[in-house]
Specification:
By secondary structure, this protein is of the alpha/beta class. The chain is built from 13 helices and 22 strands. Helix 8 runs parallel beside helix 9 and helix 12 runs parallel beside helix 13. The structure holds S-adenosyl-L-homocysteine, iron/sulfur cluster and FE3-S4 cluster (F3S).
């Protein structure tokens, strides 16, 4: 039987594009409210969360898990056992969305077997009008649709869906407040994601993120630093500061700049500090100096370039040209010894000529990245680039993609080879996925290291001697 859908609020891309600048965000504390009548609702029930997309989503899923735990749900490893399934989605490229629709389709049979099963879909995908319309019309199995701005309302959405026996949609497209003190179940006990800001104001012409995540808004430094100090006390070894564009931290509030914040984080004494992602446009000299100065700031910088061609960079709205990017790379390399640089690159953006693509290849040859995430351009509904003709054929896109990944791999292996014979520090994650007797972890500059070592080292930083370099990994053995 078809259930009626109650639409409390649905997304609006025009509203999502509005930016009132120079208005500080609203901070809300302890905003999760669990009504008395549902506070034990999850007793003897299980939850399953599937997360797609970036670290921002991984962190949001930790919060969703925290909220469900407060409602007394416990986690399970298998969708078949779950009483509530949450899909935390991504829409940065079409492939990401296809996977989610595939998964929602496959959940239909579970719902038929267990009509009490609740299925929730949240995250960036449902911040888009056309997706919400499709879900409401064609995917009856979805009970709750909520967005990136109102995760904290999950308990009342669950209550509403159950009491009203209706499907609920509540997605906001406002600029977003900042919710502090949300419950969370962190996925890891020695490394943690820490949001320092939300949203993005850059509006690169191909990108959907500014519409799905709202305005750039910074957390107060005091809240961030308190969180990190607490994590350190709990024994965490590593924090990764998160934002779509961390260099813009603090520009919306009278607080520290990102460089100043990094310095304060370094002074907490936590062993390892990472950050992602930094837009080249806002990368300050002060930040380079702070990274160079403090040994507990990892010498790895993800510096997305997207293209090496000035015309394409302009059409992408990236706010820098090839020369400015290369000058920044030079400054970083001169000041930060042994820095590891990685990047994101898109091939096949509208009107990308062979010559323009050759510029991207030559930039990669010049920078010699440690590694790169490479993507085929995917038009996103509602973005300025989607109005341009997607005029590069899939064949050409694939040829360029393969050429680019081969070039990146060549320099990657060259760089990895320089580690052979060296002893480096690795934060140990656990047995490697392929071989139980081999441990794996990440080096200070974020390289995956597989090594023979002692299981008791999991969660600790150990010294590993590198014996062999492969294209995407280093192999070695523990030396202490
Ligand atoms: N805020 C981050 C990245 C967010 S999205 C930053 O600016 O660095 C991660 C990457 O996905 C982007 O860097 C870009 O390379 C890629 N990407 C974003 N939109 C895309 C699209 N429409 N098609 C293909 N790749 C895209
Ligand atoms: Fe997207 Fe550009 Fe913002 Fe990154 S900086 S999230 S690529 S709009
Ligand atoms: Fe995807 Fe949203 Fe992150 S679109 S990459 S989950 S910000």
């Amino acid at each position: 039987m078809k259930k009626f859908a109650k639409v409390v609020s649905s997304p609006n891309m025009k509203m999502a594009a509005v930016r009132e600048l120079n208005v500080a965000p609203n901070y809300q504390y302890n905003s999760v409210i669990i009504d008395e009548d549902i506070k034990d609702f999850g007793l003897n029930k299980k939850y399953f969360i599937r997360t797609y997309g970036c670290q921002g989503n991984l962190r949001d899923s930790e919060v969703i898990a925290g909220i469900l735990k407060e409602m007394k749900y416990s986690p399970c490893q298998n969708v078949e056992e779950a009483d509530i399934i949450i899909l935390n989605t991504c829409c940065v490229r079409e492939n990401a969305e296809k996977k989610v629709f595939g998964e929602i389709g496959s959940l239909k049979s579970l719902k038929q077997k267990n009509p009490n099963l609740l299925i929730g879909v949240c995250g960036c995908m449902v911040q888009q009008e056309h997706i919400v319309t499709t879900l409401l019309t064609n995917y009856q199995q979805v009970d709750i649709i909520f967005g990136t701005h109102n995760i904290y309302q999950l308990p009342s959405l669950i209550k509403d869906a159950i009491l009203s026996n209706q499907r609920i949609c509540n997605v906001l497209s406002n600029q977003g407040d900042i919710q502090e003190d949300l419950p969370s179940c962190r996925a890891n006990t020695y490394k943690a994601w820490v949001n320092i800001m939300y949203g993005c104001n850059k509006f690169c012409t191909y990108c959907i993120v500014p519409y799905t995540r709202g305005k750039e808004r910074s957390r107060k430094s005091v809240d961030i630093l308190n969180e990190i100090r607490q994590l350190k006390e709990m024994g965490y070894k590593e924090v990764t500061l998160l934002g779509q564009n961390v260099n813009a931290y603090g520009k919306d509030i009278a607080d520290l700049s990102f460089a100043e914040l990094m310095e304060q984080v370094a002074l907490t004494g936590i062993d390892r500090i990472r950050f992602t992602t930094s837009h080249p446009y806002d990368f300050s000299d002060e930040l380079i100096d702070v990274i160079a100065k403090y040994p507990n700031i990892m010498k790895h910088i993800q510096l997305p370039v997207q293209s090496g061609d000035d015309g394409i960079l302009k059409a992408m709205g990236r706010r820098y040209n090839r020369k400015q990017y290369l000058d920044l790379v030079k400054k970083i390399k001169d000041k930060i010894k042994d820095v590891s640089l990685t990047t994101d690159i898109i091939v096949g953006f509208p009107n990308e000529s062979d010559e323009a693509f050759a510029q991207t290849l030559s930039l990669c040859e010049e920078v010699k990245y440690d590694s790169a995430f490479t993507f085929i351009y995917s038009p996103r509904v509602g973005t300025p680039a989607a109005k341009m003709k997607d005029n590069i054929s899939m064949d050409v896109k694939k040829q360029r993609f393969n050429k680019l990944t081969a070039t990146i791999a060549k320099y990657e292996l060259e760089k990895y080879k320089t580690f052979e014979g060296k002893i480096i520090k690795v934060l140990v994650d656990g047995p490697s996925k392929k071989n139980e007797e081999i441990l794996s972890g990440y080096s200070e500059d974020n390289k995956l290291v597989n090594f023979k070592g002692d299981l008791s080292s999991v969660g600790k930083i150990v010294n590993v001697k590198i014996i062999k370099a492969k294209t995407y990994t280093l192999e070695g053995e523990q030396v202490d």
